Amino acid sequence: MSNMLGTPRHLMLVALVSSCLDRACSPPIGNLASGRTLFTLSNCCGNGTSQHPLCPQPSVSPQACSQDPHPVLHMTDDPFLHPDTWWASGGGRTMQEQQDEIRLDLETKFYLTHLVLVFKSPRPAAMAIERSVDFGKTWEAVKVFAYNCSVEFGLPDDFDQPGSPCTSRYTDAAPCTGGEVILRTLNPSSAMTLDPYSPEALSRLTITNLRVRLLKSQTFRTPPSSSENSASAPYAIYTLLARGTCLCHGHAEYCVPHNNGNKEIEDSNMVSVFGRCLCTHHTAGDHCDKCAPLYNDRPWRPANGSSGEANPCQKCECHGHAATCHFSQRAWLSSGRLSGGVCEDCQHNTAGRRCHRCRYGYHRRPSLPLSSPHTCTRKSHKGPWCHPRSGQCHCKSGVGGTSCSHCLPGYWGFGGEGCKPCACPHQCDPFTGQCLHSITLFLYTGKCSCKEKKLRSVSELCKTKHDYVIKANVLSAHDKGSHAEVHVKVRKVLRSGQVALRLGTANIYPLSWTSRGCTCPILNPGMEYLLAGKEEPGTGRLLVTMQSIVVPWTPRVGLIISNSLRNGCR
Ligand SMILES: *[C@@H]1O[C@H](CO)[C@@H](O)[C@H](O)[C@H]1NC(C)=O
Ligand SMILES: *[C@@H]1O[C@H](CO)[C@@H](O)[C@H](O)[C@H]1NC(C)=O
Ligand SMILES: *[C@@H]1O[C@H](CO)[C@@H](O)[C@H](O)[C@H]1NC(C)=O
């Protein structure tokens, strides 16, 4: 029973050429009631089935059931093999006792296209066909049938008012036997044009439960003067055919048993419509209603039944370094609705939305393709370590420049071991070590010609993720040989990084001094600035780089900044 997937029938089906190839596809339509248990008020026969909400407690006496010559099963047997079998409802003298209900509980959501009932008895004078899409919690009438709609239900007849939920069709007492009741869930005019995978069709065709309420038999239509034969069954049904299909949104052509095992299936060999889709088009889920884990580069869509377009899910480009991705609306919009996938849990020391760059502390090996699992390796300790974004390298002692290519001011003799400090208090020739006069020193450490970054908008401040944002007074600047230190008085902390900032004096470190021998952007002692920039990893030092924001503080700047920080960067 549990190994139904392995039966030859399924293997054979799966081996066939798929009709889903680049096209919308659908599983075959069959009778949803075949092989499933139908419940009626008159078949509450103990044996475990008494737990069903339809059955009153305690259940009907089992003896009466075991010898029932017309069990519910006879409604769903093959009408060609067993044309003369039917279900008969229990008899009763009052109208309430004569009411009955046939209920089909499905283990998951299905599409119901139409329902056909073939009566052995005369058709009911009043009945209702109802569906639930929430496993029986709430019900909705799909159609009600009455010989006289206004009397039974207070509704107009759809003969007079097309679209009314009530109809007098199929309610005539004639024929005495073999009368049909037919319900189409889509009316024939829209069935031709409506895309079966559209939200509208979905809301009209989906069911988890179906019930047919037999409300009034023909014997009660005429006043109960001729009530002699009312002891016999008021309703008898040859066939109940609930035509429908597994719900797959156009992304599957085969379905297999649903895992929801707590709903018993009478006989799996008899089931013609199973509930779990075998998804194609890179979709997933019991109903192919989401994208497969690595295929979330654009939003899931149902197939288009009108045009036949498959609308498959699109694979995320993770360069072979991730097994899953999620969809980001933001990435989607910023790419112009081309790609919204964000790779999750990048492996092999990769990082980024597409696992396309190396993790912090690792570097690309240009000789290997990006998809290689060895494309990112830990930086060897021999060469300089360089910041992956700024490109600034950490050099040997006395060495400077973004690529550690020359001696810092105050050092000389560039070589494998770095640079040696000058033997004089100020500056020496970087090649010979000969001490220089103060005039040359002045020229060497002259002001940089800086391209100052202007703060054009709040969004610009937000775009770059600054570790710290402060308002500070510059007190003094100091040459420390290998680096420069600027003393500031912090007046306001708008954001701090790993190291919590406090009001009062602090040091900031202009990196440009190390690489270029001057301070850039310019920090003038005595001025008050808005400062925003990065922390040095590890030490938490506040760095000032060419990417930092250094803007003289004005009340207007203050207002803009505090507003944007309060509202959060978006
Ligand atoms: C129902 O009960 C009868 C009598 O107790 C028993 O013989 C039969 O096996 C039971 N059927 C099921 C399906 O449990
Ligand atoms: C339904 O019953 C009402 C009240 O008895 C009557 O006026 C009406 O003509 C009936 N309609 C039909 C279609 O028989
Ligand atoms: C499906 O295809 C038809 C015909 O090409 C088109 O008019 C319709 O908009 C499509 N539906 C969706 C939801 O894109």
Structure description:
The protein has 12 helices and 32 strands. It is an alpha+beta fold. It folds into 5 domains: 1-27 and 251-313, Ribbon (Laminin), CATH 2.10.25; 37-42 and 69-219 and 231-247, Galactose-binding domain-like (Jelly Rolls, Sandwich), CATH 2.60.120.260; 316-379, Beta Complex (Tie2 ligand-binding domain fold), CATH 2.170.300; 396-444, no CATH class; 458-567, OB fold (Dihydrolipoamide Acetyltransferase, E2P). Strands 1, 2, 3, 4, 5, 6, 7, 8, 9 and 10 form a 10-stranded mixed sheet that branches. It is elongated. Bound molecules: 2-acetamido-2-deoxy-beta-D-glucopyranose (NAG) (3 copies). Residues 304, 306-307 line the site of one 2-acetamido-2-deoxy-beta-D-glucopyranose.
